[in-house]
Amino acid sequence: FPDSVVSSQPETLTVMGGGLVGALAALYLARRNYPVEVYERRADPRQTGTTEGRSINLALSDRGWRALEGVGIGEQVRSVAIPMYQRVMHDQQGKLTYQPYGKENQAIYSVSRNGLNRVLLDLAEANPHISLAFNQQCQVVDLRNRQLVLRDTTTGQEQVRSFRHLFGADGAYSAVRSVLQKTDRFDYSQHYLNYGYKELTIEAGPGGAWQIEKNALHIWPRGQYMMIALPNLDGSFNCTLFFPYEGPQSFTALQTGPQVRAFFAEVFADALPLMSDLEEDFFRNPTSSLVTIRCFPWSLADEVLLLGDASHAIVPFYGQGMNAGFEDCTVLDELLDQHGTDWQTVFQEFQRQRKPNADAMADLAVYNFEEMRDRVADPRFLLRKKIESRISAQYPDQWMPLYTQVTFSHTPYAEAWANGQRQDQIMQRLMPHIQSEADYDLPTVQALVQQEMNNLANSQT
Length: 461
Ligand code: FAD
Description:
- The chain is α/β, with parallel strands linked by helices.
- It has three domains: 5-86 and 111-190 and 295-367, FAD/NAD(P)-binding domain; 196-289; 378-460, no CATH class.
- Helix content is 38%, strand content 24%.
- It contains 14 helices and 21 strands.
- A hairpin with a 5-residue loop joins strand 11 (147-152) and strand 12.
- Helix 1 runs parallel beside helix 5 (113-126), helix 9 packs antiparallel against helix 10 (343-373) and helix 10 packs parallel to helix 13.
- The chain is globular and about 75 Å long.
- The chain starts with a strand and ends with a helix.
- Bound molecules: flavin-adenine dinucleotide.
- Its cofactor is FAD.
């Protein structure tokens, strides 16, 4: 340890990580007039342009919006977000199928990760209670002495700082969590999918026009793999190919430009003419892994609390990782309202409430991968979705589709998942009696639906 320790003011709150969740958490904490210090390993993204020169977008939904509105930036973000009202599925022949996400006007929103991070950092910088330090990598957390070693990534110089309450918002490979991992009875697991992902681009058309439907999330489901695309403001789309690492159709099998082109010509034929930089993107952009991380406890006394991906990294197929991390901020704020400066109770209560929901969301995310890459291409599945929306329209108080509960409600994830599993069982019993949407109105089917609804109501009372 270097000799000199810089002491923070008493009751200073230290946030490790100035990414999406760290920056938002700092804004919430500073509202209570605590001095908040944020340390971020990377350079200030507002000065360096987009990470790795690429713009990557994320789907923001109701839980995320609520958290942003809580610090007064809902409108600002909305003005640069693109609503996606539906999934558009592209089959191998280029035929399109449309599936609305919810009721009319319900949408998930495509936002730029960097753009959103910059908005949050601007706001943090303007806040007199928050100090931001970039290029500061957390190297060591000394729990016993409540000290941190931070290394300046530009000069290599190290400094030691004391902390009183430390919030680990330093992402899936959290340095703060790695220290908790060495404490007694700390549970930890990480699970990688056999799939990786690669970011690709559909270019803007002439005059910045969107070359495929703008207000939609596009999916090319292909059974064991898939590509998705989300719109950008400049007319382009960010595509993500989710693809096995190994096997006959895999990243390993595509080693040359002509192989990539031939593969896309065969399986993503309608997208290929819109991806003029395909080979360059494919070999320049990294193949990244997909991990689920679970751990517990998320806190240590009144000293440390993990937030966002540091405590619950999930695979991206439900578009909820950031939303869940933002919801962490909302819940933390509510608990600070209830328990004031009793940090230990706040931390305990936070992990008690959030852990089951994070676990459920992790399961839901894996479940949705199967749905997106495989089931959405199945006509029976799409029929089932239509029947579900008929049931939901007929019994709005009793039946909210699972996707709606996760994306357009604030129902705790664990509750949504349990409801979804009950609904799944009902649909498995109903669907053998239904061959087309019109069958839903048959008296025999209506009688079955009525019976299921009665059973559901009884099981919930
Ligand atoms: P991060 O965004 O990882 O931020 C952590 C920050 O901590 C970083 O800035 C990092 O530089 C910094 N840091 C790390 N280590 C240190 C250290 N030692 N010292 C100091 N600083 C450190 N979520 C959605 O809601 N919707 C989506 O559509 C969506 N799509 C996704 C698509 C993909 C391909 C992936 C991979 C994820 C997606 N997610 C999505 C999930 C989302 O990206 C994460 O849940 C979110 O970024 C978590 O935010 P965070 O702040 O907790 O972590």
